[in-house]
Amino acid sequence: MNLLEKEPIKRNKTQWAIGPFNPMKIISKTSTNNNLSIDHHHHHHRHKCLLWLDKQSPKSAIFISFGTTTSLKDEQIEELCIGLEKSGIKFVWALRDADKGDIFSGEMRKIELPKGYEERIKNKGIIVRDWAPQLEILGHLSIGAFMSHCGWNSCMESLSMGVPIIAWPMHSDQPRNSILITKFLKVGINIFNNWERSRNEVVKSNIIEHVIVTIMLNNIEGNEIRRRAAELGVAVRRSVVEGGVTRKELDSFIAHITR
Question: Which residue did the predictor score with more confidence, 205 or 28?
Answer without folding.
Answer: 205
